[in-house]
Amino acid sequence: MSEKDIIMQTELETPVESTAEEVVEEITEPVQEEKVVEPLTDWSKIDEMERQLELSKVTIRKKSRIGMRFRRIFGNTVGQVILTVLSILWVVPLFYLIVQSFRKEPGAWSPTFFPQEWTLDNYKRLFTETEFPRWYGNTLLIAVCSCLITTLFVLAVAYAFSRVKFKARKPIMNVMLILGMFPGFMSMTAVYFLLKILLPDNYQSHLSLIIVYSAGAAMSYYVAKGFFDTVPKSLDEAARIDGASRFRTFFKVILPLSKSIIIYTILISFVAPWCDYIFVSYIMAGVPDIGMYTVSLGMYKWLEREMIQQYFTTFCAAAVIVATPITILFMFLQKYYVQGVTGGAVKG
Amino acid sequence: MDFEYFKLTLPQKIIYKLKKFFGNFGGNVKNFFLSKLKKIGAFFLRIWERIKNFGLNFWQGDVLTKASYFLIGLGHVFRGQIVRGIMYMLLEAALILYMVFFGGQYMVMCFENMFGGGNVGRVETSVSDVWNDELGEYVKTEGDNSFLIVLYGILSFLILLFFAYFYFKAVRESYELEQYRIIGKKPIGIKTDAGQFLDGKFHITLLSMPMLGLFMFTVIPLITMILIAFTNYDAGHEVPEHLFQWVGFDNFKQLFSGGSKLGATFWRVLGWTLLWAVLATFTSYFFGMLLAMLINKKGIKFKKFYRTMFVTTIAVPQFVSLLIMSKMLDTGGGILGSGGGIITQIIEQLFGYHLKFGIDITTTRICIVLVNMWVGIPYSMLMCSGILMNIPQDLYESARIDGASPARRFFKITLPYMLFVTGPYLITQFIGNINNFNVIFLLSGGGPGDLMLYTDGAKGTDLLVTWLYKLSLGTDRNYKLASVIGILVFVISAVFSLIVYNRSSSVKGEDNFQ
Q1: Are residues A211 and A317 in the same domain?
Q2: Which of A9, A175, B17, B386 has the greatest number of CB atoms lying within 10 Å of its CB?
């Protein structure tokens, strides 16, 4: 087989050596078996198909093979170049963040992309002079707690809606759909008052934040429900015929099969408190002890007009410390994340 | 589609399509509401059935059943379901205690003046004018807290509804138990009953905690804030010093009146919100799809590497990536040669143009859309990759054999397929972008302000949601207006969802992609 033939083969995905007769044989062979079932008129269709195949071969052959090959290589090279440029463009801002965290010169702006003098002082300062270590601890605590509760809630709700066909199922799902259309922040004032009533002594605390993050967890059941819908119902039925209760079925049969969706839910709910600014800023507004802040709130304050000249490089260092573990986590669990994103998109 | 269609000229084709869409649209909306009306009708019929049975059972039941109408659970206790009966009794006792000593007064105060337009609450906290002999100074008299009255009022109302459900259930059960005794059937024991919560009623066990959380921290606050839209709660009527009043639809009227400054601001912000949502959704979606196609193309090497590079922006927390972006775009002194963020400086050195991010509204808006592409394209790239691989390859093969150009293949196969499969995703994204607080707030903070028009906190790039945030945290504490805007955001989202729901449900009937 020559090189050109290989190209043709990938192009048409039919063996090029096979002559027209062979092609006809290939097509007719399985049809002959079904001859009894198929009406005779179908033969004309097969003739038509054969003729078209032959025609297309001819037209493709007529085009210069070298031209095709050139175009293909050219196209791939252009694609490769575009992708390289884009992917570099995509990570440049993050790269800038990293190099700036090693900058020695103070101030918010530097005229050059790379620092003129490199230093580790920003990191040293971050851990010795600022409240950052406490913020980090706070956020970690909140993230772990709300992640546990959220994951439990989401899996429970998703399983119930996916498997148990109880009477109130549709109405509850519709109500949740409607609730989800209001901007989440709208109810914040009332939530603030509620927290004040429930935790009169320390409503501006981490407990409040954990409650706020995990109380609404039930609303984000869609992706997990989409996943449970794809797990065959026959598994449940088999387990129930064997005498297992729904409780056992859920924990012993379904959950062990749901590793990917559990990891996805954990990942999403763990990352959420790190990224949230709006709820923290409302609940923690006017707290005297800035050590109570989470990383996002504290770091946002560093970039305000009065602080930025002094704190910009420290901010970069802190951003690196915050983003690195999350990014690594993401990269390792990318597979599960993609599964969740794709599944959720198609199910809607 | 009619065969005649192919004979039409292009504008005629467009008109035909539009007619078809809107013709269907009207019918779809009508069908939607008709089916809902039917459902509501069936619902009321069921309720009427229940009420009829409720009265009938009272008439037919014996003394114990009749007594159960006043103290629920009485019938249960005497007919074998002791634990269940006691629980019903406790429930009723708890409700009565709650209503008498706490909830009832709030419920009355919350709803008594609702339609007349009066105070929420009765006693206003007075200024220090009551002489206290023990302290030897003037003191305030504690008045009612209007906000808490609304909050507790709704809580009590919902608790009442909740109890009503159990009341009717208990009454029905007690009649059934009487019937059981007559036909000699044994009532279900407590062990079986409780065991059901891990089996037949497992969904109740699963849902109870999540629903309680949702009820307490989403449903009640949301209804409260919806009601706040019909009051005049703001800095001038701050609780607990003052009472606020019911004002009906006044806030809505103010916002919609085109003449006032507020009205003009609202229409501007609404316009930008919709424009932003369209731009942000479609740029991310289409470029994400193109990127996915490029990466998945045969013959491209290092696919995994490229994908990882793009996914990095998703992995980094948004508040980090967006804040650093906003500082890179910062304009410094605002004139040529006055420094600023690194991107501003690079553009200045290359083109001699000073980027006016945060000074000029249009520039800021363009920058925000571009940065949003930086954030959004990797998401849609990931999502599209999976679906692109699912497109039947034979469609492409046959198109190629027929001599279709790559562009034609994209518009005739890839795009329709993708739109078909990802329709729900697109609408979620669209609604998500209407509510996209992070990108706007962290990048421009609402952006430059045109002071002539944009009063009340809203500036050039503020969306409805960031305006909502500013209104409720600003110096005016304009909660009433924030609530009105929240309701309007809901209305917009609901309308768009309804349109797509109708379109996709009409598509669903066709069963699969053609």
Answers
A1: yes
A2: B386
- Tell me the pLDDT of chain B averaged across its residues: 84
Q: With an 8 Å Cβ cutoff, are A156 and B206 in contact?
A: yes
Which chain B residues touch A88 with a CB distance below 8 Å? 309
Is residue A132 domain-shared with residue A49, that is, in the same domain? no
Residues of B in contact with A80 (CB under 8 A): 300-301
Least confident among B17-26, B43-52, B292-301:
B17-26
pLDDT value at A85 more than 90: yes
**Per-residue pLDDT tens digits for B45-59:** 998 998 888 888 888
Cβ neighbours of A305 in B, within 8 Å: none
Name the residue among A87, A215, A219 with its Cβ closest to that of B216: A215
In terms of residue numbers, what domain contains A43? 3-63
Question: What is residue B297's predicted lDDT score, i.e. its pLDDT?
Answer: 83
Mutate to test the interface with A, among B312, B393, B442, B484 (most CBs of A within 10 A): B312
- Distance of alpha carbon B232 from alpha carbon B212, whole angstroms: 30
Q: Report the top-level CATH class of B256-506.
A: mainly alpha
Most confident of A51-55, B109-113, B168-172: B168-172
| Cis amide bond preceding B240, omega within 30 | yes
**Nearest residue, CB atoms, B314 vs list A53, A299, A330:** A330
Specify if A135 maps to a domain. yes
Backbone angles phi, psi at A231, to 5 degrees: -75, 125
B251 touching A, CB under 8 A? no
If one counts the domains in chain A, the total is 2
Dump pLDDT digits (tens) for B214-254.
999 999 999 999 999 999 898 888 887 888 889 988 889 88
Instruction: Check whether residue A161 and residue A235 sit in a common domain.
Output: yes
Local confidence band at B86 (pLDDT 50, 70, 90 cut-offs): very high
Cβ separation B328–A183 shorter than 8 A: no
**Measured CA distances, B326 to B291, B321, B358, B417, B449 (Å):** 25, 9, 9, 37, 17
A129 lies in the same domain as A267: yes
The pair of structure tokens assigned to A315 is: 């901010």
Residue where a domain terminates, one of A40, A63, A86: A63
Does the residue A9 lie in any domain?
yes
Exposed/middle/buried for residue B391 (C-beta within 10 Å: 0-12, 13-18, 19+): middle
Residue A206 lies in a domain: yes
Check CB contact under 8 Å for A109 and B345: yes
Q: Is there a single domain that holds both residue A206 and residue A309?
A: yes
Do the chains contact at A246 and B378, CB–CB below 8 Å?
no
pLDDT in tens, B468-514: 988 888 777 889 999 999 999 999 999 888 877 666 554 444 444 44
The Cα B172–Cα B196 span in angstroms is: 20
Rounded CA gap, B275 and B269, in Å?
10
Is there a single domain that holds both residue A164 and residue A308? yes
A158 close to B203: Cβ distance less than 8 angstroms: no
3-state helix, strand, coil in chain B (%, to 5): 70, 0, 25
CB-based contact B315:A319 (threshold 8 Å): no
Contacts of B429 in chain A (CB under 8 A): none
Residues A47, A128, single domain; the answer is: no
Residue A11 has pLDDT above 50, yes or no: no
Indicate whether A72 belongs to any domain.
Answer: no
Task: State how far residue A84 is from chain B, nearest Cα, in angstroms.
Answer: 8
Out of B312, B383, B423, the one facing A94 most closely (by C-beta) is B312
- pLDDT at residue number B6: 67
pLDDT digits (tens, 9 = 90+) for B434-470: 999 989 998 888 778 764 555 566 788 889 999 898 8
Residue that finishes a domain, picked among A15, A48, A63: A63
Residue count of chain B, please give it: 514
CATH number, domain with residue A219: 1.10.3720.10
The answer to whether B42 faces chain A, any CB pair under 8 Å, is: no
At residue A18, the pLDDT reads: 42
ipTM: 0.83
Å between A35 CA and nearest CA of chain B? 25
